[in-house]
Amino acid sequence: MANPIGSSITVGHYPPGTSQWHQIEHRLFSFLSLNGQGRPLLNYETVVNLIGATKTRSGLKVKALRDTNRYETGNEVSAVEFKQVNLRKHKVHPDWNYTISPITGLT
């Protein structure tokens, strides 16, 4: 994706079991729970509407849309293809944090 858009993509994740470090996640999910108040999640529309109607006291609003596109599964990246990715791992948690940059000369 970095090549077609001509821009670097940075991915940053917290390692498993460390979601307590992510303050927005904590602020948001408590309000999702309050907003749901035990309503049964009968279908996708109910879930999307519940999430999309969530707002925190400080004004954080959630936008939720259902992606109905179909995606091909079973695609595998070969070791050769993976080595061609312009990937730079970050110093902190390099398995979870990295930047993928466009390959120069490709469009």
3D structure, described in words:
With 107 residues, the protein is α+β, with helices and mostly antiparallel strands. It has one domain (2-70, 79-101). The chain has 4 helices and 3 strands; from the N terminus they run H-E-H-H-H-E-E. The chain has helices at 2-5, 23-36, 44-52, 79-83; strands at 9-11, 86-89, 98-101. The radius of gyration is 19 Å and the shape is elongated. The relative contact order is 0.24.
Concise account of the structure shown:
This protein is 30% helix and 10% strand.
Helix-strand blueprint:
Elements (H helix, E strand, L loop, with lengths): L1 H4 L3 E3 L11 H14 L7 H9 L26 H5 L2 E4 L8 E4 L6
Antiparallel strand pairs: 1-3, 2-3
List keywords for this structure.
3 strands; alpha+beta; 107 residues; single chain; 30% helix
Largest sheet: 3 strands, antiparallel
DSSP summary, beta strand count: 3
How much helix, percentage-wise, in residues?
A: 25-40%
Number of domains: 1
Order of strands, main sheet, comes to: 1-3-2
Structural class by helix and strand composition: alpha+beta
- Report the C-alpha radius of gyration, rounded: 19 Å
**Unreliable segments of 5+ consecutive residues:** none
Q: Can you tell me the overall shape?
A: elongated
Distance between the termini: 10 Å
Return the average pLDDT rounded to an integer: 79
Strand residues, percent:
5-15%
The number of helical elements comes to: 4
- The sequence of SSEs as H and E is HEHHHEE
